[in-house]
Amino acid sequence: MLTILSLVMLFHLLVLIQIIPYTIVWAGKINTIAEMRVFETVSLFINAFIICVIAVKSQYLKWNIPGKLIQVLLWVFVALFSLNTIGNLVSKTSFETIVFTPLTFILAILCLRIVLEKKER
Questions:
Q1: CA angle (100 as vertex; 32, 42 as ends), nearest 5
Q2: What is the distance, to the nearest Å, from the Cα of residue 52 to the centroid of all Cα atoms in its chain?
Q3: Distances, alpha carbon 32 to alpha carbons 18, 35, 85, in Å
Q4: Which of 109, 107, 120 is nearest to 71 (CA)?
Q5: Tens digits of per-residue pLDDT, 52-96?
Q6: Which end of the chain is more exposed for a tag (fewer CB within 10 A), N or C?
Q7: 3-state DSSP assignment of residue 119
Q8: Cα atoms in the Cβ-side hemisphere of radius 13 Å centred on 101
Q9: For residues 23 and 35, is the Cβ–Cβ distance under 8 A?
């Protein structure tokens, strides 16, 4: 999951620096470069946050965050990825539908697996 999210961050960074056209992301609803910058910056921060939470859960990061908070956040991520999967299914851009629908579905399943895992590493 950390690898997939890191690759997603790389993708969003490439959109942000305009190597990948912003017209293929966010369901094709971004109209200006200014809008794209805001959306992509927020996306990068959200993905970085998710990576940190998963790294704490996996004990790659030894931050003193209550386990209950981590569990709640992971459930929020399961919901977020699930809703994102639905959003990608109805996207105006075929790229999002073809590439990101299965990706967000896989992330939802992996996140569900992590949140249901009983043992800490």
A1: 45
A2: 12
A3: 12, 5, 24
A4: 120
A5: 999 999 999 999 999 999 999 999 999 999 999 998 888 888 888
A6: C
A7: coil
A8: 14
A9: no
Instruction: Write out pLDDT tens, residues 11-60.
Output: 999 999 999 999 888 877 888 999 999 999 999 999 999 999 999 999 99
CA distance 113 to 110: 5
- Give the up-direction half-sphere exposure of residue 46: CA atoms within 13 A in the CB hemisphere: 13
Q: What is the distance between the alpha carbons of residues 73 and 58, in angstroms, rounded to a whole number?
A: 14
Does 120 score more than 60 pLDDT? no
Place of tokens 């639905």: 86
pLDDT exceeds 70 at position 119: no
Is residue 88 packed enough to be buried (19+ CB in 10 Å), middle (13-18) or exposed (0-12)? buried
User: Which residue pairs, CB below 8 angstroms and at least 24 apart, start in 18-23?
Assistant: 23/93
Q: Which amino acid is at 73?
A: L
